[in-house]
Design goal:
The protein is α/β, with parallel strands linked by helices. Among the domains are: 203 residues, Glycoside hydrolase family 3 C-terminal domain (Rossmann fold); 117 residues, Immunoglobulins (Immunoglobulin-like, Sandwich), CATH 2.60.40. Helix content is 26%, strand content 19%. The protein has 20 helices and 29 strands. A 6-stranded mixed sheet has the order 1-2-3-4-6-9. Strands 10-17-16-15-11-12 form a 6-stranded mixed sheet, with helices on both faces. A 5-stranded mixed sheet has the order 21-29-28-23-24, with no helix packed on it. A hairpin with a 2-residue loop joins strand 7 and strand 8. It is globular. The protein starts with a helix and ends with a strand. The protein binds beta-D-glucopyranose. Beta-D-glucopyranose binds next to loops. Beta-D-glucopyranose (BGC) binds next to loops.
Length: 743
């Protein structure tokens, strides 16, 4: 007591008041965040509040300098930390310390079917973001794979809401462990790119709830995502960046989301709607940040001076503004003002290792007749590699996910490094795709110019193929417009650049042909019968070549499975079978109706009597074999309050260690509304030594049995009989059992 009196007396003697020494509540780390937010809010002027909810540069928004509240810095996302651009322009800032590790594209992550890989991914990319002093990563993306033409599917997690939900949650948690926010995008119904600003999606509530929203809901409610990016497109005639139903009713109302909504860049169109319909932060409205003929375009953003003016003229109150600012402050407390968050790290060995492990687990062996793979290095003297994608850098391009990497090992370099002097590795071009290599000022520096004709290139490849022990064709799509690239969609399912002709010619020349398809989308394979081995490789980032080589030579046993269906033809996909796909650009609003409703991906393929997919959802082979025993359940009848446990023994019947992704689908045998034949409700990746058997168990509750009833606007679970289907893919069913749900 004596000491305290003495100290305050001393303070007075030096002219300091006792009060000046106490920490204000908004800075007091012992106080709950919500109290600190209210205190900060009460100290802010109207102008400071409005400033906080819109950008001040291409990727940042201001804090409150006067109060020591820091700025917010955003970065793309979702596969690595994007290089720095100028304050007001997309041009590179030309920093020399902003190159990063490129992690595999999210399609590859989804293909691992391994939530642990997702956590590792989130943790690692979060560390890179933190080191680069970013507040928010603009990712992950979880828009459902509705059509194989969508130029952005590579940034998403496939066609199934359950798989995407299970994979997105750990990514978000991993990122946010670093005190960096994940911004889950693009909320929602952003399932194609052409006309992304003018497509008005018409979808029934059942499909919305069962297909398009679950992954976002899981990210918010289970992952506790701190930020969401509403999409460019429209829904119910309103842009999603200020959409009453999606942002206010569903996201903030039903799901109780307490984070910030961050407009997609240039996705805001109206001040009043932005104020009222749930948008919290406006970014990228004018493309170069300087147009609109004003000294500072940011002041002219919809949620800048126009908002201030409306408040000053009494046209709107400050209730909505305070809510937005509270959310931004909450974001800042969770990130920038969290002194306990780690420091992060960049380009570490651990991050490269994480990128490689995720890639190795995500590569999918689609076909392997006569065990062409793995390559037998003891026998092979010459390995011919054909194709542009064997050498082309894939981390540059594709839109906002484009990166500037510290290193990217190409497939050819990866193969050469692994094969060493065990065999001769020869590369020939085969076809010319897109020889350019630049995105947004980042150049690959590769010279891929080629003047020879397709005929000459094929002749060269065939000649070499005849003398080789193995031929590995590495092609597919790339990150150029019209391939796998933002703001564009593909014009068809077929490969471009005459690749089909090259593959067909190689198949005739050499029976040990392996086709490696690098893409984020399904492709047509008119040559499938002639090609014994096919590998689905993705955009796998910095360790692309190392990971692919380890699979091809069998150092790593493939264990990925497809997160989406490969149709034979475009018309086998429901969006194309039942609807029109708009290829022409339009400045007017275009209605796009999702006629297929809930029948997306395998939910559609399962209903087709005559047509089979080229490769089914969940398909993927291994260099070993697995046998499934009979599935059993712990009870025959359950109630809506119960959980049912299903067990199935799985044995590795081959000669090497491998991992199998065991899938559980549920089928409602009788229901009031039409339901999919079956739906994925569980999966597990099990590692098994040769001869080893493990029991795989799944527990399901009523959520796995319910559907969304539009009429009741509620999830419904109907008593009756259900089937639990244990499968190795959507069409490779191993064991079934019937159980019932009682009243
Ligand atoms: C993309 C977003 C991205 C943003 C910022 C937009 O064009 O749709 O995914 O995060 O730009 O680069």
């Amino acid at each position: 007591m004596k000491k305290i009196i003495a100290l305050s007396t001393l303070a007075l003697a030096f002219g300091l008041s006792v009060q000046a020494q106490t920490t204000p509540v908004y800075l007091d780390e012992t106080k709950p965040i919500e109290e600190r937010i209210e205190d900060a809010l009460s100290r802010m002027t109207l102008e400071e509040k409005v400033a906080m909810i819109h950008a001040q540069s291409k990727f940042s928004s201001p804090g409150v300098e006067r109060l020591g509240i820091p700025d917010v810095w955003m970065t793309d996302g979702p596969h690595g930390i994007r290089p720095e651009v100028l304050w007001d322009e997309w041009d590179q800032a030309n920093w020399t310390n902003d190159s990063c590790v490129a992690f595999p594209a999210l399609t590859c992550l989804a293909a691992t079917w391994n939530p642990e890989m997702s956590l590792l991914y989130g943790k690692s990319i979060g560390e890179e973001a933190r080191y680069r002093k970013k507040t928010v990563i603009l990712g992950p993306g979880v828009n459902i794979y509705r059509t194989p033409l969508n130029g952005r599917n590579f940034e998403y997690m496939g066609e199934d809401p359950y798989l995407a939900s299970r994979m997105v949650v750990p990514y978000v948690q991993g990122v946010q462990q670093n005190g960096v926010a994940a911004c889950v995008k693009h909320f929602a119904l952003n399932n194609h790119e052409v006309n992304r600003h003018t497509s008005n999606i018409i979808v029934d509530d059942r499909a919305l709830r069962e297909i398009y929203l679950p992954a976002f809901k899981a990210a918010v409610q289970e992952g506790k995502a701190w930020a969401i990016m509403p999409a460019y497109n429209l829904y119910q005639g309103q842009h999603l960046c200020h959409n009453e139903r999606m942002l206010n009713e569903i996201l903030k109302g039903e799901w109780q989301f307490d984070g910030v909504t961050v407009s997609d860049w240039g996705g805001t169109h109206d001040t009043e709607q932005a104020i009222k319909n749930g948008l919290d932060m406006e970014f990228g409205t004018w493309t170069n940040g300087l147009t609109a003929g004003a000294s500072n375009a940011y002041d002219n953003y919809y949620m800048a001076f126009p908002y201030l003016k409306m408040i000053k003229e009494g046209k709107v109150g400050t209730k909505e503004l305070d809510d937005k600012v509270r959310r931004v402050l909450r974001l800042i407390y969770r990130t920038e003002m969290n002194r306990n968050r780690p420091w992060g790290s960049m380009n570490t060995d651990e991050h490269y290792e994480a990128a490689r492990r995720i890639a190795q687990e995500g590569i999918v062996l689609l076909k392997n007749e006569n065990n062409v793979l793995p390559i037998d290095l003891a026998q092979a003297k010459k390995i011919l590699v054909v194709g542009e994608n064997a050498v082309k850098m894939m981390t540059v391009g594709g839109g906002s996910s484009s990166l500037k990497v510290q290193r990217e090992i190409s497939p050819l370099d990866g193969i050469k490094a692994r094969v060493g002097n065990q065999a001769e590795v020869v590369w020939v071009r085969g076809y010319v795709g897109d020889a350019s290599g630049e995105y947004n000022g980042v150049v690959t520096g590769q010279n891929l110019k080629e003047d020879r004709s397709p005929k000459e290139l094929i002749a060269e490849a065939v000649k070499e193929a005849k003398e080789a022990d193995y031929v590995i064709f590495i092609g597919g799509l790339n990150k150029s417009g019209g391939q796998d690239c933002e703001d564009t969609d593909r014009s068809g399912l077929n490969l471009s650049y005459g690749q089909d002709d090259v593959i067909a010619a190689l198949a005739e020349a050499n029976k040990n042909l392996v086709v490696v398809n690098i893409s984020g989308n399904a492709i047509a394979m008119p040559w499938i019968e002639q090609v014994p081995a096919i590998v689905q490789d993705w955009y796998i980032g910095s360790e692309a070549g190392t990971a692919l080589a380890s699979i091809l030579v069998g150092d790593v046993n493939p264990s990925g499975k497809l997160p989406f269906t490969f149709p034979v033809k475009l018309e086998d996909n429901s969006a194309h079978a039942l609807g029109e796909f708009v290829y022409e650009r339009s400045n007017e609003v275009v209605d796009i109706k999702y006629n297929e409703s809930i029948f997306v991906g395998y939910r559609w393929a399962d209903k087709q009597k005559k047509v089979k997919p080229l490769f089914a959802f969940g398909h993927g082979l291994s260099y070993t074999t697995f046998a499934y025993g009979k599935a059993t359940a712990d009870k025959k009848e359950m109630t809506a309050e119960d959980v049912l446990t299903i067990t199935v023994p799985v044995t590795n019947t081959g000669h090497r260690e491998g991992a199998e992704i065991v899938q559980l689908y549920i089928s409602d045998l009788k229901s009031s509304l039409p339901r999919p034949v079956k739906e994925l409700k569980g999966f597990q990746k099990v590692k098994l030594a040769p001869g080893e058997t493990k029991n795989v168990t799944f527990t399901i509750g009523k959520d796995a049995l319910s559907y969304y009833d539009d009429a009741q606007q509620a999830w419904v679970v109907e008593p009756g009989k259900f089937e639990a289907i244990v499968a190795a893919s959507a069409i490779d069913i191993k064991s079934k059992l019937v159980f019932s749900l009682g009243k």
